[in-house]
Design goal:
heterodimer; A: about 300 residues; mainly alpha; B: about 525 residues; alpha+beta; 11-stranded mixed β-sheet; 18 helices; 19 strands; about 25% strand; globular; disordered N terminus
């Protein structure tokens, strides 16, 4: 076990190295930050001065070695736009994205668990059909469109929830719901199939034949076991929620990592793009290791070598 | 084994619950404060909330280069000279100014002004501020100020600003972003990073809080030299998504929302307590031609045909939702050197355009050219291309993502035509025309007219406003004949406001909070 964790930790290094190289190159071949920083009326001389001041006149490999050297020490360079250390800006935003991701997860569980269980228990009935239909729609609906529709309904027409920004719990409801719906749809399907499988197991039949009530069997015996795959998918989806909140954060002006990244790409703020992608990569890799460790704890039959 | 499995599951669930309750607890506390800060009807007269599409870059007025930053910062930092809403120079932190000689201006400073931290404002602050932006080449505003050689503090309330040559634009420079006066002593004592975290100026509003990409909160400066500010609090919200910004306005979350898309104008006007207000801004959409020898657009007949083939008013009405003013010059009223005879007018004659194209020796579909445009003006470019094709041109439309466009722009690698909206933060014709001077035009438009060159070179250092204005007006008349560029229209800023505030937008797109007033109820 300890050996496994150590091995996985060592594997992070080459992964992050490759991520850094790809991002570094992509960011540099897609445009000229100097042009975006200066006014339209700037002269060629102004541009040359700024290019040199930013070290952009040096060969790519020199820039990369320099970048990597400082990145190891946690220095991803200064954001052009904010003129502040990029990593600091990225880390500042993590709590907002984390809050949104956790809330979205909460919504997803809240919706998916009852729907999944009901549709498994009432399999192949009209209810099952309706729930399946809803989850297909939920999965297919673009976040962008749904966010705008929710704003129109709950904020503009009914006036019960704030439109945008980060503030109290009320600000969290619409974006978290928007982000959680797709995940909920996926989880509903998963819970349904996992429950169906369990409901056909011998121990369920045994419990029923002992004379236990239908509800008791479903809640106490089947449901608990049916939750295990849900926990698995929750941990896997959490990383994609952290990194994938770009559209939702933009629609709701949620000041998280996603919005920071969108603005940084638009303004060609290279340092921020690099730092943000790097941080997301670290979160993904670490979460994956933690998930593996959790598996191992939950089910000692799984071996890692 | 089963027991361990359950333990793991419960720990996971517990962790989720803990995190949720943690953010729940924090949220309730912020919820209370947002209830009092909101623009609910009870507190409407004390808090002004404005929504913009982009956040400020920082509280360093010297290292910002977007209008929306300046629109916020003008409430915190004062300039020596201000532009009033008609772009006339009025006293700010300087009460009077005189030209001593060709390269020296003397400014009398206002006495008794204090910074937000209580420090008095003196000539030392002016010296520190202007020399910083003039000398540090990494600052984004440096290119506007680098011709200032020295700022001499004559006494505590008098300064001499010395330029490296005659500079007719000095007053314009001193009334724009980059000239915001910083507290020299405060920065010397605490360092610049501390200043950025807790910025201090002399303006009507004091810094309170900045949550990046969310909001900037300012509070009233009770000791403002120009009388007590009108609002207790001014909040600038950042809402990049246009439909969300419109929804915030409709839901009453903001008092003023900027950059309303033309498609939402009717929707806002349809609401009883909401208004649309418009004002021309400093940006003219135009086509700039390459006149390099061998280029098809080097032929004046072709350029004239292009001008005549485009129905500018039609584009304003269809794409811009009416928010635009047709013009034959980019130096619009309010700018020094404007020629009003070329404003609010345009040429359009498809038949003559076809005839000119034939005279130039091109049969239908033979005059092939590429128009490059940044994605933000894609729709306008598509209509222009369609109109030109109707007149017999063959157009390749090259729509570029914004940063790709910028790169091609600065490397001067466009083909026959590029379409661009050019602003003018200096309110002076030189800003529009320097690109047509020999050195600058090289490789871009390759425009070359010795007479224009002479006029522009002279205007650059001409300290006599009357003759300088004539020079620029003369250039405009030449340009209207020669067409190094075809002007489509001057853009208008479109804002939505609620009926609780009076807001007359400015052509410089600034939000001076005290020019926005609550409507008496």
């Amino acid at each position: 076990m300890g050996k496994y964790v150590l091995k996985s930790l060592l594997q992070i290094i080459p992964v992050l190295f490759i991520v850094s190289l790809i991002v570094f190159i992509l960011v540099r071949v897609t445009g000229d930050p100097v042009a975006l920083m200066l006014p339209e009326t700037a002269t060629a001389e102004d541009r040359a001065v700024l290019t040199q001041a930013l070290g952009l006149d040096q060969p790519l490999y020199t820039q990369y070695v320099k970048f990597l050297g400082s990145a190891i020490q946690g220095d991803f360079g200064q954001s052009f736009r904010y003129n502040q250390p990029a990593l600091e800006l990225v880390l500042e935003r993590l709590p907002a994205s984390f809050e949104l991701a956790v809330a979205a997860m909460f919504f997803a569980v809240l919706m998916a668990v009852p729907l999944g269980v009901i549709s498994a228990v009432k399999r192949n009935t009209f209810t099952d059909l309706i729930i399946s239909g809803i989850s297909v729609i939920g999965k297919a609906m673009p976040n962008f469109w749904m966010g705008i529709m929710l704003i129109l309904l709950f904020s503009v027409m009914l006036g019960v929830l704030p439109v945008s920004g980060r503030g109290g719990l009320s600000h969290l409801i619409l974006p978290a719901f928007t982000l959680g719906v797709g995940l909920a749809a996926q989880m509903t399907r998963l819970i349904r199939s996992s429950m169906l499988e369990i409901l056909n197991q011998d121990y369920i039949r045994t419990a029923r034949s002992k004379g236990l009530g239908r509800m008791v069997v479903i809640v106490k015996h089947a449901f608990r076991n049916g939750l295990i795959p849900v926990v698995t998918i929750m941990s896997l989806q959490f990383t994609s929620l952290i990194g994938g909140t770009l559209i939702t954060e933009t629609v709701f002006s949620w000041p998280g990592l996603g919005q920071l990244l969108v603005v940084a790409v638009n303004t060609h703020d290279m340092a921020i793009v690099q730092a943000a992608v790097f941080v997301i990569a670290v979160i993904v890799v670490v979460t994956n290791i933690l998930t593996d460790v959790a598996y191992r704890l939950l089910d000692p039959r799984i071996k890692y070598d | 084994m089963k027991k361990r499995q359950w333990t793991g599951l419960w720990i996971t669930l517990l962790a989720v619950v803990m995190v949720l309750s943690a953010c729940g607890g924090k949220s309730t506390s912020t919820n209370d404060s947002s209830a009092t800060e909101g623009t609910g009807s009870g507190s409407a007269s004390t808090t002004l909330t404005i929504a913009a599409a982009t956040d400020i870059e920082s509280f360093d007025p010297h290292n910002n280069n977007n209008t929306s930053s300046e629109a916020v910062l003008v409430n915190v930092f004062d300039y020596l000279i201000k532009n009033d809403s008609e772009q006339k120079k009025v006293a700010g932190l300087a009460t009077s100014w005189d030209q001593v000689d060709d390269t020296t201006w003397r400014f009398k400073l206002r006495e008794g002004v204090t910074f937000h931290n209580g420090d008095p404002f003196t000539s030392a602050d002016v010296k520190y501020t202007l020399e910083r932006v003039a000398k540090d080449e990494t600052l984004k505003q440096n290119s506007y100020f680098k011709n200032i050689v020295e700022v001499k503090a004559v006494d505590d309330y008098t300064v001499d600003i010395i330029t490296d040559g005659p500079d007719p634009l000095l007053l314009n420079r001193l009334s724009k972003m980059g000239a915001g006066i910083l507290p020299a002593k405060y920065i010397a004592d605490n360092g610049f990073d501390a200043f950025l975290k807790q910025p201090v100026g002399t303006g009507p509003y004091k810094f309170s809080k900045w949550t990046k990409d969310d909001r900037v909160e300012l509070v009233k400066n009770e000791n403002y030299f120009d009388g007590e500010p009108k609002w207790n609090e001014v909040v600038f919200r950042v809402i990049p998504e246009a439909s969300t910004r419109v929804s915030e306005l409709l839901a009453g979350g903001v008092d003023v929302a900027s950059s309303i898309p033309s498609t939402d104008i009717a929707r806002i006007e349809g609401e009883a307590d909401k208004k649309i207000v418009k004002a021309p801004i400093q940006r003219v959409l135009q086509l700039i031609f390459r006149q390099t020898e061998g280029s098809i657009t080097a032929d004046p007949k072709v350029r004239e045909a292009i001008d005549l083939a485009i129905d500018k008013q039609g584009i304003v009405d269809s794409i811009a939702g009416g928010a635009g003013i047709v013009t034959r010059t980019s130096v619009t009223p309010g700018n020094f050197g404007a020629d009003p005879s070329l404003y609010k007018t345009s040429l359009y004659d498809q038949e003559k355009a076809k005839q000119l194209l034939q005279e130039a020796g091109y049969a239908e579909g033979e005059a092939e050219m590429t128009i490059s445009v940044s994605a933000q003006y894609k729709e306008q470019a598509e209509v222009v291309a369609a109109m030109l094709e109707q007149a017999g041109f063959k157009i390749n439309l090259d729509v570029l993502e914004a940063s790709a466009f910028s790169e091609r722009y600065s490397s001067k690698s466009f083909k026959e035509i590029f379409m661009i909206g050019i602003g003018n933060s200096l309110f002076d014709a030189s800003n529009n025309y320097n690109r047509y001077m020999l050195e600058e035009a090289k490789g871009e438009s390759d425009y070359n007219n010795p007479e224009v060159e002479k006029l522009l070179q002279s205007a650059l250092v001409n300290m006599d406003p009357a003759s300088r204005e004539k020079e620029y007006q003369h250039v405009q008349q030449i340009f209207s004949e020669e067409r190094p560029a075809v002007y489509l229209y001057q853009m208008e800023g479109v804002y939505g406001t609620n009926a609780k505030v009076n807001f007359a937008p400015r052509s410089d797109e600034m939000f001076y909070a005290d020019e926005i007033t609550p409507v008496a109820q």
